[in-house]
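As a warm-up, study this chain.
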Amino acid sequence: MTDLTTNTTAKAAEGEAGFGDYIALLKPRVMSLVVFTALVGLLVAPVQVDPMIAFTAILFIALGGGASGALNMWYDADIDAVMRRTARRPVPSGKVTAGEALSLGLWLSAISVAMLGLATNWLAAGILAFTIFFYAVVYTMWLKRATPQNIVIGGAAGAFPPMIGWAAATGTVSVEAVLMFALIFIWTPPHFWALALFMKSDYHEAKVPMLTVTHGRAETRRQILIYTFALVPVALGLGLTSVAGPVYLAAALVLNLIFLKGAVAIWRRAEAQAEADAYAVEKRFFRFSLYYLFLHFGALLADAGLRTWGLA
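Now compare it with the structure written out below.
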């Protein structure tokens, strides 16, 4: 990391970083998922939250998610520089120094946790602090470079936001919050492994032990199917809790049938067949996986709205 810090400092000196470069450090696309799932966790909780407190809670949860992104980009800049998908990120491109990314990540971590605790409760703040630690230290600094289970275990970091939102509203963690966590946690491996299948050489060149690198593409396809089968009962089980209703149950049935069909199609493919059509099936599965998660949480929000208006 010392050489990287020196190099990026020299590069950044050639031109001033823009505001957009610092925003990019926070991984805004990932943050959008954090914000949305945390908001759903807060709004479906069986407690009325003052709108200003709710806004403040989501703001600081978002900042905590951004802090995780900045710390990840600080530490992973050497890997990001090798991978085509990430080479233009602010640190490897030299627009922002590694030290600036680290400083921003640490300051946002402290501010977001402290302010969430003051605005809501310290259980929510504690889960947020653990989430930042888990993503930055457990996943980024350890798991990502050490084991093909990096995405499986590390996926917990992205699964905590709805639990944080729920805790911010209620001061507790319940079975509903755990199942929302589990939905994201089990969804994460097939989502990222599908990406790894069509990002053919990135992880290999960066020496990241993704499952495609350590166990091959055939095993990755098999694991996508296994995790998808495990995901279905979790998604449907959430539909049997107090936060779900007819909209969620209908959406979950349709979405999981489509997701399972896609996983089976990936499992049946040979690598030569996948290369021949430019990994079209894998790319479609990956894109649909994004809609899959947003639509599940959107359906929970719709059912909460129906309950509010006395229609369910």
